[in-house]
Amino acid sequence: MAHLLGAEGISLSYPTKDVFDDVTVGLDEGDRIGVVGRNGDGKSTLLRILAGRQQPDAGRVTVRGGTRIGMLDQADTLPEDETVHHAVVGDRAEHEWAGDAKVRDVIRGLLGGIPFEARLGELSGGQRRRVALAALLSRDWDVVFLDEPTNHLDVEGVAWLAEHLKQRWSKNQGGLVVVTHDRWFLDEVSTDTWEVHDGIVEPFEGGYAAYVLQRVERDRMAAASESKRQNLMRKELAWLRRGAPARTSKPKFRIDAANQLIADVPPVRDRVSLERLATSRLGKDVVDLEDVSVAFDGREVLHDVTWRIAPGERTGILGVNGAGKSTLLGLVAGTVAPGTGRVKRGKTVKLAVLDQRLAELDEIADDRVADVVGRQRASYRVGGGAELTPGQLLERLGFSNAQLSTPVKDLSGGQKRRLQLLLILLDEPNVLILDEPTNDLDTDMLAAMEDLLDSWPGTLLVVSHDRYLLERVTDQQYAILGGRMRHLPGGVDEYLKLSAAPPAGRVAAEGGVSRPPAATLSGAERRTLEKELASVDRRMGKVADAITAQHAAFAAADPSDYAGLQRLQQELAAFDAEAAQLEDRWLELSELLEG
């Protein structure tokens, strides 16, 4: 494969830190590189050096003649008085860019809901970021560098971007280097991984899943001081193999080696034990939403939503921006009042929210981390088992001893996010809402947070565009479609199919289904399919009720009746499997009828 660019003997130092020490890397035609590493270790700096935007102290970057390089960095550099139109397509004539399928796809995939003639100064930070990404992708480049491109994209946007990048160049053409904490996205687009750490860039074959395996092998052979990190990554690998097997089907992922490594690693969560502990802390009643509707300025956001949240439930919520996810969480948290219907909250509920704001840290900004944590409590019990001191919790969340003396105001964004989570856990809530919790966290810290949540015995509700996190920490997912909640036995994949379907192909607000007949079907065939579809729809409703009843049975069960709990778990698994089959058949029938 032809060489595109390379860095030879790169070194870079700041007064307080050596970033790179004699680093040599290269990018060839067809390379798709994902870059991982801890915050502050130099991932973004590496991209800027390779793209020619920053000069190293020593070494050089060489670029093949004529190579066109485009980069999306984290800085917002778009002029405020420029229009969206001009930023994306420049001075090209309308017939020129409108006739370009790639440009139309970029506009459709990234700029939905953004006025094309709006000035950039009128847009939100997230909208400006999407415009900057669209401006980059609407042009032709031989090499594309992307620094956190999934920020401000929802699940649909991340899926679109992954597919766009996979189709952007022919095989063995073009080069891509991407820095992101979105591990699902890394696995989708990258064929190789660079880990930036300790002043070096270490290459690994394959995407994130393959990187985890190889890193476990590396850590297993390392010194004993790496044992804690190794155990955490082995747990991550166990989930990749057991919880998301499709990710490990790539040829470069050595499945036999993975199986051997995780042979003695238990499942990431003991669901029965956690639900039993949650029931003992919460009782039978958590929060019930009964026929709730909410409207703002005459527009109905949620319609007749009924949701009985069970003790120990771990649920992910999906939906496009503006679908009502935050409104739904507000109903649960008590910050939003229902227009109609009723919200019933259990007497023992102690709820906490980890949201995108860090306002609660403002009043302790001048305090040292150690003092802040020391005021909370002397110990924290993990899943009803071992007790950890606040210092041990801080260590699990990546704080060094030196950082314990740091004032809160001097922490990085990622460190503040971790401290925020720690303070919430030390307050021991029994219902926890995570609203886009992945901001400012690198992949290692996300794994550490997930590890901590695995042993947290409470009810967990998560809204996130980070598909990996959503699938990793929750046991079931729901979508908000047309103001209604819909269970997703098929998970995020099913949601993407439903959200991509035309409105007529979705379950309507009235509960019925309306689809145009397929031209290739006879009248009798169409009536047969519609009859089966109605039957499947009714059965789906009954199974959903059965799943809700099963969760209620869990809450009412005797915690010491292990045989009974196991039977309930088996029955629940059977209902989940049936629901998945029914959803698949529903989608098949819908597609046949839509033609």
From TrEMBL:
Q: Name one GO molecular function term.
A: ATP hydrolysis activity
Q: Which UniProt keywords apply?
A: ATP-binding, Nucleotide-binding
Domain ABC transporter, chain residue ranges per copy:
5-223, 287-507
Coiled coil: which residue ranges? Answer: none
Q: Does the keyword Nucleotide-binding apply?
A: yes
Alphabetized InterPro entries for the sequence: AAA+_ATPase, ABC_tran_C, ABC_transporter-like_ATP-bd, ABC_transporter-like_CS, ABCF_ATPase, P-loop_NTPase
Would you tell me the protein name for this molecule? Answer: ABC transporter ATP-binding protein
